[in-house]
Design a protein that fits this description.
globular, two-stranded antiparallel sheet, 6 helices
Length: 230
């Protein structure tokens, strides 16, 4: 999915908001002030701090066969239970879904990164909603995570709580949702390839698949094959 802007504007898209927006986000990202993954210094957003937890040791990487780093975000673990309320965010990390002994019932994690401006992302989530996709794969042992990294402006800004609330309520998202305004997941793909879907083995947090641009047919085929191999 190509972004609706020139190459020059695309470079600006990954830069965080001006200082007023950063300050406004502080209540939601109670942690260290960090520079987004843009290579452009001087603009910051607030992200939750790293939290120690039981998790596979590194080294960590971004390609298939690598161990996924224990990223921490803010969002909702159960968005429908809080009715997509922006004031009820909680810290969430990849360690929350790590399931080495099967006690959580999670076999594979599907991590989706989307932007509000992305028409392919919207079509993907409409399909999830209309076809009951999450319920089907949840029953097989899959857990989904939705990460929103930019809004719908042109050029876009880093995602804000209102973007996550709009996305969740519009597509009736039942699975965990997080904000990624610093574009941490930009280590795995470039924004013009949005959406990105990662498949991660919950037993060891190894990345087993990476799909860009909305190729869900191949992704779900691999997901089904993987859970059947347990």
């Amino acid at each position: 999915m190509r972004r609706l802007m020139t190459t020059g504007l695309a470079c600006l898209a990954l830069v965080a908001c001006a200082s007023e927006d950063s300050i406004a986000q502080k209540d939601y990202y109670q942690g260290e002030q960090v520079t987004p993954n843009t290579g452009t210094p001087g603009n910051s957003v607030y992200e939750p701090p790293f939290q120690a937890a039981e998790y596979p040791a590194g080294p960590y990487g971004t390609n298939t066969g690598s161990v996924m780093a224990n990223f921490t975000f803010r969002g909702w673990k159960k968005p429908t239970e809080v009715a997509y309320d922006e004031t009820k965010f909680e810290d969430m990390s990849m360690a929350d879904f790590y399931d080495p002994d099967g006690s959580k019932g999670v076999k594979v994690i599907m991590l989706n990164a989307s932007a509000v401006w992305c028409t392919v992302c919207r079509a993907e989530y409409n399909k999830f909603k209309n076809e009951g996709t999450y319920g089907k794969y949840k029953a097989m042992g899959a857990e989904f995570i939705s990460a929103i990294f930019e809004d719908a402006a042109n050029p876009p800004n880093p995602s804000k709580p209102a973007d996550l609330a709009w996305w969740g309520s519009t597509y009736q998202v039942e699975f965990p949702m997080v904000l990624d305004p610093g574009f941490k997941l930009g280590q795995f793909f470039t924004a013009d390839a949005t959406p990105m879907n990662l498949l991660i083995d919950a037993r060891n947090m190894v990345i087993i698949g990476k799909y860009l641009g909305g190729d869900t047919t191949a992704m779900f085929a691999q997901l089904e094959q993987h859970v059947a191999s347990y």
